[in-house]
Amino acid sequence: MKLLADENMPYVQELFGDWAEIVTCAGRDMTPDQLADVDVLLVRSITQVNEALLAQAQRLSFVGTATIGCDHIDTALLARRGIAFASAPGCNKVAVGDYVLAALLKVAEHKSWQLADKTLAVVGVGNTGSQVAARARALGMKVLLCDPFKAQGDPTAFVELAHALTADIVSFHVPLTREGQHATWHLLNESAIDGLSSEQVLINACRGDVWDNAALLARQLGSTPLTLVMDVWEHEPEVLAPLVPHVLLASPHIAGYSLEGKARGTFALYRALCELKQVEMVLSPEQLLPAPPIGAVHLESPLDQGLIARLVKLVYDIERDDRAFRLALGQPGFFDRLRKHYPQRRELGSLQLINAGQTASELGFKV
Ligand SMILES: NC(=O)c1ccc[n+]([C@@H]2O[C@H](COP(=O)([O-])OP(=O)(O)OC[C@H]3O[C@@H](n4cnc5c(N)ncnc54)[C@H](O)[C@@H]3O)[C@@H](O)[C@H]2O)c1
Ligand SMILES: O=C(O)[C@H](O)[C@H](O)COP(=O)(O)O
């Protein structure tokens, strides 16, 4: 069996090495002729799996994406051609929760806010949005939920987008969709942007095309700019460079890039392929991961916002990502290079807080 995988997918050798001849390459450089004799294709979000890529793929029987988002996969084409497909729902939801928590704490420092006095709206309340909502509640924030699909089951628990956009902080966690009543392409469009006040903060850790970046730049260049946190950008790997100086925290689509999240992503495809081939799984995600650099911290004072910020930074320093992004911005290929050489980042759950209570656990730490 021949397996072609994105070179930025960890643990492929460990998980598939016994079954397959493994070839890896850069996800953006995969070509139709490379797929001519491939049985299994494993990708990340940057490979468009479409008619053109699969034109010569005569032997392909399985496509897996080690990601949550599937907007890069023509799933109808795979179904038509009888090619099995698996994604990795939820694999990096904890990492996105960590990223947004770190961002909220930086925003609070920047604006001298006590987060417990503020309201956070979560737009898209699935795997990642729910993680964000739980952490915000643990910080004592009031949380508004906006998700028209989930609202069908429980209308009183959700608000409309217009209401969500009145919150102090609005964090977006929707898939990229281009069709239907609730399509998310440019969900944050010029008119929505015009309706916001300069006190408000927006976070995008889902897909760049969900925000109209040109309209945001126009707003930022005016007299009442917003506070922005952007992990994702319209037209990646290109970035609207003039927008970056007007963004508080900027990063190259790495919100989900914890080592645990990436391991779970590859593992989800291993599990799916084992099921398909009716082979017994011999490894678990935990067996793949190294010990974390810091195992435990003994708390001697109660958790407050300042202490939480210091503990989060011990595990994940979001400002490091922001500095690296600004330093590299403009260099050819900088976006993909930062992602390829992203340092090993562990989840908050890799750190045990001794003498801490329920709040620490709700924030994502091990207690
Ligand atoms: N930046 C990153 O590294 C990163 C990491 C993981 C996921 N993502 C992106 O985030 C997206 C969300 O991930 P998830 O795991 O939470 O997905 P999910 O499918 O679990 O949840 C998405 C939620 O959005 C809701 N939704 C759809 N359209 C909506 C709309 N118009 N308004 C409000 N809600 C809407 C859905 O009903 C669903 O509950 C993914 O599709 C992926 O594109 C990015
Ligand atoms: O949808 C996701 O899961 C993430 O956006 C994605 O995994 C980001 O990483 P990439 O696949 O682009 O390496």
Automatic annotation (TrEMBL):
Homodimer. It comes from Oceanisphaera marina. Belongs to the D-isomer specific 2-hydroxyacid dehydrogenase family. PdxB subfamily. It is an enzyme of class 1 (oxidoreductase). It catalyses: 4-phospho-D-erythronate + NAD(+) = (R)-3-hydroxy-2-oxo-4-phosphooxybutanoate + NADH + H(+). This is Erythronate-4-phosphate dehydrogenase. It is found in: Cytoplasm. The keyword Transmembrane does not apply. The gene is pdxB.
